[in-house]
Design goal:
50% helix, alpha/beta, 216 residues, TIM Barrel, binds erythose-4-phosphate, 11 helices, 8-stranded parallel barrel
Length: 216
């Protein structure tokens, strides 16, 4: 499973990239707004750090506006992926962008039906938000199971990759990988938690303590 980092924070992206665990980045308007910097300069910095798909979101809600924004942003790099909301106008834009060879990520997906439509329209990626589903008492991971099952049916010829989004804790990552999702996009704080195991810390402390007893 590929790991994308779900943030627009340059320090977090740089740090996780140096760990060697990052295949791409996803941003959204909320994440960008937290940084207090202009959008293009944030994206330029991300592009200079990570050599992989970088999702950037349109803010238009009509297909014409979305395509216009997408064509502009796609000029920034071949790694740019255009994030498009899961609405009818959005899928109209996805179809047009797909025909132009521009990669898309259909976002704000909360149901299997939406995922089927996004794949039919030719989305490169689809982003089901599992944490937000869990928040309202639904089983977010179940839609990942259903989507993986449907997308892998060769008769359908779907090429869309599933990005598990709205990841809240390390178990979401483990479950996504077991199910066979293509990608999980993970906040920095959750990636940090994935490192942690008390036996690693205890073991390292003992190794270092014992090393001091080694005769030089
Ligand atoms: C994914 O593309 C979104 O940016 C993100 O995962 C949303 O997560 P949230 O529900 O924590 O805001």
């Amino acid at each position: 499973m590929k790991i994308f980092i779900d943030t627009a924070n340059i320090d977090e992206i740089r740090t996780a990239n140096e760990w060697g665990v990052i295949d791409g980045v996803t941003t959204n308007p909320t994440l960008v707004s937290k940084e207090g910097k202009d959008f293009k300069s944030i994206v330029d910095q991300i592009l200079s750090i990570v050599d992989g798909p970088i999702s950037v979101e349109v803010i238009s809600t009509d297909s014409k506006g979305m395509v216009k924004e997408a064509l502009e942003m796609a000029k920034w790099s071949e790694n740019i992926v255009i994030k498009i909301p899961m609405i009818p106008e959005g899928l109209k834009a996805v179809k047009i962008l797909n025909e132009k060879g521009i990669k898309t990520n259909v976002t704000l997906v909360f149901s299997v039906n939406q995922a089927i439509l996004a794949a039919k329209a030719g989305a490169t990626y689809v982003s089901p938000f599992i944490g937000r589903l869990d928040d309202i008492g639904h089983d977010g991971m179940q839609i990942i199971r259903d989507m993986v099952q449907i997308y892998k049916n060769e008769k359908y010829g779907f090429k869309t990759e599933i990005i598990v989004a709205s990841v809240r804790h390390p178990l979401h990552v483990v479950e996504s990988a077991k199910i066979g999702a293509h990608v999980a996009t993970i906040p920095f704080s959750v990636i940090e938690k994935m490192f942690k195991h008390p036996l690693t810390d205890i073991g390292l402390e003992k190794f270092l303590k014992d090393w001091k007893k080694v005769v030089e």
